[in-house]
Amino acid sequence: MRAAITDRSALLIVDVQRDFMPGGPLPVPDGDSVVKPLNDLIGRFESRGLPVILTRDWHPRDHISFKERGGPWPPHCVAGTEGAEFHKDLRIPRDSIIISKATERDKEAYSGFEGTDLDDVLRKRGVRRLFVGGVATEYCVRATVMDALSSGYEVLVVEEAIKGISPEDEERAKEEMVRKGAIIVKLDEIL
Ligand code: VGL
Ligand code: ZN
């Protein structure tokens, strides 16, 4: 389905951070593949003066989601560490908006909307339509998209710009997002 970048659109990039890339502690297989399509989109949003927003997983050292505290994950994206930095090839515009999430020791938050001012930021700028990419499809992308839809945004998930940890779970997450109203678009369908 074709989709236009309207003047009420924003680009929302979820957790494209070093620890989620191959070689990191919580790797998304072939996670690097999202960088090129995202850079393409960043250029298009930037040249139109439209918002580029990046979420980042930004955990305290002893976050509840870490194995040593009984959580499911190895330590990752500890605030201020190299592993929490954005992918070094991502062309981040100077005026991008960065949303840090899951910053509280005893609380997990996969969604970029949970415990952050993302909704306020989008409202203030009159954003109605979100183009979404990032990792991991079945965790933070999915949760962010579901919350965006609940809050009334139009959500277009960019096929080449997302990547999951498990192909089966990624497929299920895509179906769930579509069922709730998201549209999955290919890069060359974006006008
Ligand atoms: C994520 C697992 C743990 C994600 C974050 O960004 O999808 N996944 N923390
Ligand atoms: Zn995390």
Provide a short characterization of the protein structure.
By secondary structure, this protein is α/β, with parallel strands linked by helices. The protein has 4 helices and 6 strands, in the order E-H-E-E-H-E-H-E-H-E. Helices cover 25% and strands 19% of the residues.
Describe, in plain words, how this protein is organized in 3D.
- The protein has helices at 35-47, 118-124, 137-150, 167-179, and strands at 9-14, 52-57, 97-101, 129-135, 154-163, 183-185.
- The model has no long low-confidence stretch (mean pLDDT 98).
- The radius of gyration is 15 Å and the shape is globular.
- A six-stranded parallel beta sheet has the order 3-2-1-4-5-6, sandwiched between helices.
- It has four helices and six strands, in the order βαββαβαβαβ.
- The protein has one domain (9-189): 3-Layer(aba) Sandwich (Rossmann fold), CATH 3.40.50.850.
- By secondary structure, it is of the alpha/beta class.
- The structure holds pyrazine-2-carboxylic acid and zinc ion.
- Zinc ion (ZN) binds at residues 57, 59, 65, 76-77, 102.
- Pathway: Cofactor biosynthesis; nicotinate biosynthesis; nicotinate from nicotinamide: step 1/1.
- This is nicotinamidase.
- Keywords: Hydrolase, Metal-binding, Pyridine nucleotide biosynthesis.
- Residues 9-187 form the Isochorismatase-like domain.
